[in-house]
Design goal:
Elements lengths: L8 E8 L2 E8 L4 H8 L18 E4 L2 E4 L12 E3 L12 H8 L9 H16 L21 H7 L10 H12 L1
Helix pairs in contact: 2-5
Length: 177
């Protein structure tokens, strides 16, 4: 047994926002806590810590996940994108730009998770992944039209306590066009 690591810690390799990271973490450390407390990426927020609010949403290998529900050690070798990783240098991601232009935020606490979820939603719809409200007559694999109902359904895991939902939907519609 390696005496340098306690029985409850492991060294974890992650690719975060395009950079390779090597972290020694307690096995119980969530991906959210690894990002915030070990990598100082504080854009991702801790809301409910139970996977019910979406404030901690990040992209894991391009798919949206609640980072408060995943152990960091279970993400070893995977790619994580946080809201900080969506920018291209000084240029905002189109979803970030639309959120600003459409005033799709108020207090801003949920905004990073909303933005990460919206980025994933656009990719899911483009790949033709149906949601609960996707019309059944649509051909399998055909891109899904992002109507307001479709956007609301796909964003339902992200809570905004300020009620900026109409502007969030408008921002996502703008990018989807």
């Amino acid at each position: 047994m390696d005496q340098t690591l306690p029985d409850r810690a492991s060294t974890v390799a992650l690719r975060v926002n395009g950079a390779d990271c090597l972290l020694t973490l307690d096995h119980r450390t969530t991906l959210l806590d690894a990002l915030r407390d070990h990598l100082d990426l504080t854009g991702t927020k801790k809301g409910c810590d139970h996977g019910q609010c979406g404030a901690c949403t990040v992209l894991l290998d391009g798919r949206r996940v609640n980072s408060c529900l995943l152990f960091a050690v279970a993400c070893a070798g995977r790619s994580v994108t946080t809201v900080e990783g969506l920018t291209d240098g000084e240029s905002l991601h189109p979803v970030q730009e639309a959120f600003v232009a459409r005033d799709a935020l108020q207090c801003g606490y949920c905004t990073p998770g909303q933005i990460c979820s919206a980025v994933a939603l656009l990719d899911e719809a483009a790949r033709g992944e149906p949601s609960h409200v996707t019309p059944p007559e649509r051909l399998p694999g055909e891109p899904v039209a992002l109507t307001p109902d479709e956007i609301r359904e796909r964003m339902s895991g992200n809570v905004c306590r300020c009620g900026a939902y109409p502007n969030i939907v408008a921002a996502i519609e703008e990018v989807a066009r």
